[in-house]
Amino acid sequence: MEKAKILIVEDEAIIAMEIESQLQSLGYKVTSIVDTSEKAIEKAEKDKPDLILMDIRIKGEMDGIDTAESIRSQFSIPVIFSTAYLDQERIERAKITMPFGYVLKPMQERDLKVTLEMALYVAKVEGKRKRTEETLRFERNRAQQYLNVAGVLLIALDQNGIITTVNPKGCEILGYEEEEIIGHNWFDDFLPNEGIQNVKKVFKQIIAGEIEPVEYYENPIARRDGSQCFIAWHNSILRDNKGRIIGLFSSGEDITKRKETEKELEKASVMIHSISDAVITTDVEGNITFWNKGAEKIYGYQESEVIGKSINFLYIEKDIRILNSLINELVEGRKIPSVEVTCIDNENNDVYILLSLTTIKDDEGNIIELVGFTKDISDRKRVEKKLKKAHEELEQKVVERTMALQHEIDERKQIEYDLLESRKEAEFANNAKSEFLSNISHEFRTPMHQILSYSKFGVDKIDKVTKEKLLHYFEKIGTIGKSLLSLLNDLLNLSKLESGKFDYDIQSVDLKKIIGKISNEFQSLIDDKGLSLKLTESDVPTEIICDEYKIGQVIRNFLSNAVKFTPKGKEITISYEFSAFANGQRKTETETIKAICVKVSDQGIGIPVEEIEDVFDKFIQSSKTKTNAGGTGLGLAICKEITKAHNGKIWAENNPEGGATFSFMLPYEQETAPK
Q1: Element (H or E) spanning 593, and its range?
Q2: Disulfide engineering: 252 pairs with which of 17, 43, 153, 292, CB 3.0-4.6 Å?
Q3: What domains lie within the chain, and their CATH numbers?
Q4: pTM of this prediction?
Q5: 106 upstream amide cis, omega within 30 of 0
Q6: Can you name the residues that pair with 358 across neighbouring β-strands?
Q7: Cα–Cα distance, 292 to 543 (Å, whole number)
Q8: Is-contact 152 138, C-beta < 8 A?
Q9: pLDDT digits (tens, 9 = 90+) for 248-297
């Protein structure tokens, strides 16, 4: 079903856009949005919308009410007024334009739809009513025309040839008023002198009942201005109630122009036969009625071979449809351009012609014949085919060369892109190296500075302090040295993990037992800090294939961080649950991989949202924890590499109630040994 077309007239752009959105959501088509009376009238004429939604207060010389009146009088397009308020004066003015409804701003979609549907329905009914009235008016006028005998001369004569009745058309043809004709003798006053006695004689014989009037005959009559016109007569005898002849009733058609046309056609026929182009005429059914010498030359058929035949035998099938379509347009009164079509001559050869069509009409404007003017363009078409072929070959060569050039350009762009990407990678690697050296330098410099400081204290004060104090210095140096050794070990482990040179001991282990064992290791530290550890029980399978030590290292790191950042009196929770990798991450798009997910949740200070994605990078510590918390910033980076090597996934998230949860997910089975 075709959408109703609506023109929006609104000078507030935002409101106009809202109205457009509402109309489109309701299934209507917005033809245009305008903001002035002038544009509204212009678009109403151009777009021919089914309905106009008109703001009463708009820009321009006229307001919405005056604009609606102008559109209604010119185009009869229904209008609905929209406004934020209506005063009585505007209501009275608006009534004059006969609007189809009102909507108040802001528009409610339901009210707008009801108003639009009612307006469109009323407009449809009104349109049907007007068409019905027009049809009735047409029929009434046609009936009146029939009463006037469809424009032919009507005349009644008594027994003496005196005119008793004449219709308006008769008055028009003769050039007299009705009162100047009634009572006059038809033969003496309105017929030429030539042949008048013979006509009178025939009339008297008809009145006497000696002969019947002929069905049809032609003769000239004299007009007031002295000219003559030819009339084709049909006569009927008038009788009284007893059947006695009392006169004659005749209807006459003015055939003067036809007579003149016949003479002109006779002259034109001589001229048409002398031209080289084909001139062919057919009746309205398409049967050939005229065929000139040019047609004989182009098609090879003599006139006697084609007269009365359908014109279709000359054309190929597809062009017959084109010809019929053109004839239909011509009959409907449209102008049609000349067209190129293909015909077939008497030797079954293709003949290319340029065809122009026109019509011959009678005095009432009815088409009585179709005329076709055809020019043989076969030679030109053959040249055009050769040119077209040459052009297509040239275009193909251009396309091939263009494709070759484009291929070269694409290759060059790819090389440039690869060079740029290589440069970016080199710059990134250089920046990463610089950042790594800066971080590692800082991580080494601080403990080394502490070792040197405590060593210097011991040397400078060896004779001045007690053994206990010296022991304190040595213990500090040992502690810092162990921390530095741990950093070196972490660096070595991370380097091996990233390079894939780390060895893994893959076997079937019970993840639940690993968690229990590590929890026992941390129990004394947890008790010292006044924390509680909760192990959530679950009935999911905990037997997996992994490196027990490496996965234990991940759990230790998670638990160590939880203990480190959880305040006294708070709780740490370790849980595990059944999970699966998302579709397409491994194997095919439709399969999933069974996995187990381990979560360590604390009630600490959490992680800033903007740092969640970075906590697993090297030397990265949360801005909330990197002071006074210890750690090298490598632990989570090592956990990430271990999980990755096990084809797993690792992530961190903040808890709604506070604190953070660190999680990792591992498949139950390993397709290949971790690298």
Answers
A1: strand 593-601
A2: 153
A3: 5-145 (3.40.50.2300), 149-254 (3.30.450.20), 259-376 (3.30.450.20), 377-502 (1.10.287.130), 503-667 (3.30.565.10)
A4: 0.34
A5: yes
A6: 371
A7: 104
A8: no
A9: 998 888 998 888 888 887 777 777 777 778 888 899 888 999 888 888 88
